[in-house]
Model the fold of this input.
Amino acid sequence: MELQGKKVVIPVESLFNTFEFWYPYYRLKEAGAQVVVVGSGSAETYTGKPGTEVKVDASIDQVTSADFDAIVIPGGYAPDIMRRYPQMVQLVRDLFTSGKVVAAICHAGWMLASAKILAGKTVTSFFAIKDDLVHAGAEWVDQEVVVDGNLITSRTPDDLPAFMRAVIGAIQKEG
Done:
């Protein structure tokens, strides 16, 4: 199991994209990682679209970046809600600045913009938030997955296989 001993956080909020949460969740577990679901603290259970629920393991005030080897942020409209919680944004920034893998798919780029980690980075996302990422200082490209240092981004659920191959490969390289 290629990620044995690794610990990955997946943050959630209401209206997360069901595919972009569950596919990484189970793929990371399959690879041997310990996956911790962290919510903002506004609820113990969050509902994704279209109605799938997930119960969190911890709230944001119970974790720090030192607890994890990587973060995988699902899209949907949840990232717009997550970024309203400064501790959620700080977790992303701290993981990024410590050189750990930060992965975001679809609308999750909103969290990267709010964390102020996009200046000079090449990224992708769902096309509708391209302007937000460019205004945050990123170079946006239309590719299924983009790896720029410890930052991994992807566009849509169709890109999940390539996205997760890149994420797992990057976490493995961390040592």
